[in-house]
Amino acid sequence: MTTSTPESRSEMMFLGQECNHPACYLHDFLPFNCPACHLAFCQPHFLPSQHSCTAPLPASMIDRIAPTCPMCNEIVPYPKSMDPNEAVERHIMSGTCVGLQGGEERKKAEAKRRRDIGEVCWKKSCGKVLIVKMKCESCQHVFCPTHRHPTSHTCSDQTPSPSSSSSRLGNPQTPSTSRPAGKAALSRLLPPSMQPPASTEASRSIPPVKVNSANTTLGGSKPLAASSEGNVGSNLDAKAAAAAAALKRAGQDVKVPFVKSSAEKRTQAEVNSQIQALKARHEKGLLTKTEQVR
Q1: Which of 19, 123, 142, 235 could, after both became Cys, cross-link 24 (CB 3.0–4.6 A)?
Q2: Which sign does the torsion angle of CA 198, 203, 205, 208 carry?
Q3: Range in 58-62, 114-118, 249-253, 259-263 with the lowest mean pLDDT
Q4: Domain range holding 88?
């Protein structure tokens, strides 16, 4: 490990200056000059009151005032080298004083001209003089650091156009067209006894497809067996689930009453099992009075 020597520490001493305070003599790399005696000091000692400065202050610091226009009561800015009365006179003669006729319109036109050439911030409510210009990538206008983001100056190009958004989303269907389509798909999948009431002309115009029950025959053959009843019920549940999915894709929030949850199916199966057990006990004559009342 190398240690710093006096020679290595003195290599960077050409940067900055030593503080002229008699009790400090700190080598400051960014010194401050006293406005009265113009000597170099560190930050804690550069004010005249901090180092007992005997030099007189400049007149610009003693008699510094902010002149006000007598016509519009606005504070008129001016440089240190200019007389305050001359600054007020220039303000009135420029024609931008709102106290004169047409002055407000000329003031707005002048502010717009300064925004167009990039002299001040483009945001109307800001008007800061730009030292570091920052251009918005969306609207190509220059702004101050505070309003450089598109969300800070209500950028006109931050919202996508309808054509670009529709092409990006793949031209989706509108709710007005998808809603009747979902109801029509539901009406085709349900038997007549389970169909919801029709509310649109599209659902009335499409006739529902009838689903044969377990008592009907297939092609004039024998009636369906008891084992086929479970297949028909499962097909109805599958079609009902497909209809509910079609309604959800169509953008509707409709509760389909015929779609049972797993808990409801278990409850129904338990009730059916109890009924079958009671029937078997009734055929054998084993029912009690309580079970007969039930």
Answers
A1: 19
A2: negative
A3: 249-253
A4: 84-147
